[in-house]
Design brief:
This protein is an alpha/beta fold. It is built from eleven helices and 17 strands. The protein has two domains: 208 residues, Quinone Oxidoreductase, Chain A, domain 1, CATH 3.90.180.10; 131 residues, Rossmann fold. Helix 4 packs across helix 5 and helix 4 crosses helix 10. This is alcohol dehydrogenase (NADP(+)). Its cofactor is Zn(2+).
Length: 346
């Protein structure tokens, strides 16, 4: 088996350390990818620190992967050595349930196999993109268009698709008023994508400190949630609100910002359950929804869309030795807007 250099979390409380892991030789339908860049997602931190459930340590996280095909299995037809490719939040699924057959593998009824913190078909724990190589079945690999540099493309495999999917599902576009709640790793991509889709885009963030960035990335309006007048002035304004934040929200206040038939979509995961009064929905036929990421087909569509419109993530590229520092900065919201690991430094 080929070996790969990696960074792993030994436990929930220890810093990440350099290590070596094994990767599979490509099976008949698999490709071996030389990872060039790996984005740092807050989910990596939540998972490795045991905040979302029990973990088997050591764990190698990372599900925003961009690289180049290094080897292919004997029956691979979709990719060749040298192709620019990506891997997102999962590397397999059951392939036979109604959702998988519909191209919605992220909602696999048997549970998709995560890029890390899961058990693969080989019976071994999956390990993510904080490494130099990964072996993946070709149907779960994405092609990165030539119009996208690999470093800015890596975060699209999670942050990009997590916002593209709800914006497409609930038809953001010309004539639609769209609000993005939160201006972080997810939110900044929501602004870019909603603007490129032709919607009128508002950002609702805790303060005004990222206002200039929001306008630069395509926002038409910017509001501070800490200003009580915001929720009065914007009542009934939006056709679609996508929340990217992990902090607890006054859900009734945000539902009150929806127009008739408007939809509030939760893309972030607040720590505590959120409650709301049914009247916040029934009065104007509003909807409350959730979203995960996207299927392979839609993720490829997103990558092609981003290449066509020149949309990449706003990134800060770091060497491996700064991963632990970057994690602390992510927790402190001190990044604009995605850290990306140069895996040649592992």
């Amino acid at each position: 088996m080929p070996t790969a250099r990696a960074y792993a979390a030994p436990s929930a409380t220890e810093p990440l350390v350099p290590t070596t892991i094994e990767r599979r030789e490509p099976g008949p339908h698999e490709v071996l990818i030389a990872i060039k860049f790996a984005g740092i997602c807050h989910s990596d931190i939540h998972t490795a620190r045991g905040e979302w459930g029990a973990i088997s340590y050591p764990i190698v996280t990372g599900h925003e992967i961009a690289g180049v095909v290094e080897a292919v299995g004997s029956e691979v037809t979709k990719y060749a050595v040298g192709d620019r490719v990506g891997v997102g939040c999962y590397v397999d699924s059951c392939r036979k349930c109604v959702n998988c057959l519909a191209g919605e593998e992220q909602y696999c009824l048997e549970g998709e196999i995560g890029t890390y913190n899961a058990i693969g078909r080989d019976g071994k724990p999956t390990a993510g993109g904080y490494s130099t190589h990964i072996t993946v079945e070709e149907d779960y690999v994405l092609r990165i268009p030539d119009g996208l540099d690999l470093d800015v493309a890596a975060p699209l495999l999670c942050a990009g698709i997590t916002l593209y999917s709800p914006l497409k599902t609930w038809e953001a576009g010309p004539g639609k008023q769209v609000a993005i709640v939160g201006m972080g790793g997810l939110g900044h991509m929501g602004v870019k994508i909603a603007h490129a889709l032709g919607a009128e885009v508002s950002v609702i963030s805790q303060s005004l400190k990222k206002q200039d960035d929001a306008f630069r990335l395509g926002a038409d309006h910017y509001y501070a949630s800490s200003d009580e007048s915001t929720f009065e002035d914007l009542k009934g304004r939006f056709d679609l609100i996508v929340s990217t934040v992990s902090s607890d929200l006054d859900l009734d206040a945000y539902l009150g910002l929806l127009a008739l038939d408007g939809t509030f979509v939760a893309a972030g995961l607040p720590e505590n359950p959120m409650s709301f009064g049914p009247g916040s929905l029934v009065g104007f036929r509003r909807r409350l929804a959730g979203t995960k990421n996207g299927g392979i087909r839609q993720t490829q569509e997103m990558l092609d869309f981003c290449a066509e419109h020149g949309l990449g993530a706003e990134i800060e590229v770091i060497p491996a030795e700064k991963i632990n520092e970057a994690w602390e900065r992510v927790v402190a919201s001190d990044v604009r807007y995605r850290f990306v690991i140069d895996t040649s430094t592992l």
